[in-house]
Specification:
single chain, TIM Barrel, alpha/beta, binds 2-phosphoglycolic acid
Length: 251
């Protein structure tokens, strides 16, 4: 059986100033040698400072978005090379907030993920159904389409992480039942295997995201094919994120 290294990823979204970088030292003090990978994705303004603050710790730094092009006339955007130059190793692409707020399609997400992989970084691709889609019984259809259309052909277990984030669970305090999480993660695992072959399909990490908190992390991490979490609100403070990391280590 393929052993997948677990990943606790924090997405700070549009939160965080220089003064908040002390969370890195606090997280490191709580988990100096974590038994899983730990990633924080701060706003772009903090990428360079966070990767400097995390030097010598096990904490990795990631970006929340990128432009698919290598350079050019794209005001306000960042290329993968710039993100790597700032010290990041991962890029979140296709978060539902970007799909909703910026009209990003799965084709856009795929182009970004291709750029991330070509640049030698790990693409953390987010997919997830809305409440309307779930209530209409369309969850697996939506997830299957987003997964197929958002992931590049050449993806491998070292370059791709998939995050299942039901849109209705993000920032709401609501989470799916453990059976619902197991169903979607099992479906994603099977789809990855069919698309990329057994080894890659078994090796890609699948994270759950949406209202993961210290109080529900352990039960979520006990679900088959949950290889970690993408955490928003509870990643902002080490006192919340550290117990989530602890729960992942113990799972
Ligand atoms: P949340 O966000 O943990 O605040 O629900 C998760 C996410 O959007 O990645």
């Amino acid at each position: 059986m393929t052993k997948r290294r677990k990943l606790a990823a924090g997405n700070w979204k549009m939160n965080g100033l220089g003064a908040d970088l002390d969370q890195i030292a606090r997280l490191d003090a709580a988990h100096p040698a974590p038994g899983c990978e730990v990633l924080i994705c701060p706003p772009a303004t903090l990428l360079e400072r966070m990767s400097a603050a995390a030097r010598g710790t096990a904490i990795m730094t990631g970006a929340q978005d990128c432009h698919p092009a290598a350079s050019g006339a794209h005001t306000g955007d960042l290329s993968v090379a710039m993100i790597a130059d700032a010290g990041a190793s991962h890029v979140i692409v296709g978060h539902s907030e970007r799909r909703a707020d910026h009209g990003e399609t799965s084709a856009d997400v795929r182009a970004k993920a291709e750029a991330v992989m070509a640049g030698g970084l790990v693409a953390l691709i987010c997919i997830g159904e809305t409440l309307d889609e779930r209530e209409a019984g369309r969850t697996l259809e939506v997830i299957g389409t987003q997964l197929r259309d958002s992931t590049p052909d050449g993806a491998g277990a070292d370059t791709l992480v998939v995050a299942y984030e039901p849109v209705w669970a993000i920032g709401t305090g609501r989470i799916p039942t453990l059976e619902q999480i197991a169903e979607v993660h099992g479906f994603i695992r099977a789809e990855l295997g069919a698309r990329f072959g057994g080894e890659t399909g078994a090796g890609v990490r699948i994270l759950y995201g949406g209202s993961v908190k210290p109080g529900n992390a352990a039960e979520i991490f006990g679900v088959d094919n949950v290889d970690g979490a993408l955490v928003g609100g509870a990643s902002l403070k080490a006192e919340d994120f550290a117990p989530i990391i602890a729960a992942l280590q113990e799972s």
